[in-house]
Design a protein that fits this description.
Helix content: over 70%
Distance between the termini: 58 Å
Number of helices: 3
Largest sheet: none
Strand content: under 5%
Order of helices and strands: HHH
Radius of gyration: 18 Å
Number of strands: 0
Amino acid sequence: MDPSAARPSAPESDNVADGDGLVSRLRVIEDQPLESRADAYTALHAELKAVLDSADRVGADRTGADRATG
């Protein structure tokens, strides 16, 4: 099976909100050779995990502050 056949067509992809450039970054990664893709996906994963982890800490801080004042 052709790997590109599994990808959504451009019009479908355009419906995805790309406010942070994630879709664009994924397209760039997919165009790289396999070894480079693995490294790029690892780096992207680490970056997204850091963002999510920091959001969890901020949310926990706010929840704790709400409990302290409420």
